[in-house]
Design a protein that fits this description.
By secondary structure, this protein is an alpha+beta fold. Helix content is 23%, strand content 30%. The chain folds into 2 domains: 93 residues; 98 residues, Alpha-Beta Plaits (2-Layer Sandwich), CATH 3.30.70. Strands 1, 2, 3, 4, 5, 8, 9 and 10 form an 8-stranded mixed sheet that branches. Strands 6-7 form a two-stranded antiparallel sheet. β6 and β7 form a beta hairpin. The chain starts with a strand and ends with a strand.
Length: 204
Amino acid sequence: MRIRFSKRGDLRFVGHHDLARIVERLFRRAGVRPAYSQGFHPKPRFNFPSALALGIEGVREVLEVELAEPMTGEELAARLAPHAIPGLEFRSVEVLPPSAPPARVKRVVYCLEVPAERQAAVQARLREITSSAAFSIHRPAKGKTFELREWVEELSLDGGVLRMILRVDPQGSLHPREVLAAMGLADLESQGVPLVRADVELFS
């Protein structure tokens, strides 16, 4: 099963590993048995192809789970929904063929509301990035340098909302907060403006 879910509100302050435990307990309360791995320490076959960083809201997150018993997507959704905690919403359930490979993330979409008084500065920064021959983002801790335009497929401000589409690669990718820092917006989250991952796009 491939489940699309939302993680909103105060639930964004729950880390990925804690979220995985919450989902496992939720399945148990709903009476849905996931399949388990083999070995000395069997674990439920849950797969989150892209963990959501602490403090970021997610609108269309992805969870894949292998069940121990056959079930339709509608039945699974109906059994899980009554047990969802505040901030967690199951949006859709897709039944995958048994031979389907694990999901691979192609790109991710983030949005951030920009206060009206700072939008002019953001537009100026966007023009600067667009007109520059190169715009590098440094990651000193790992000694890496990223060329922003190789990893950011879209960076725009429309209706007061900054939208960024980041390419995902197995070798690494930019973090949205690195892009916010480059835009001079790193402080907005601490002021209570949530960074939202609006979509996780998968390879078909």
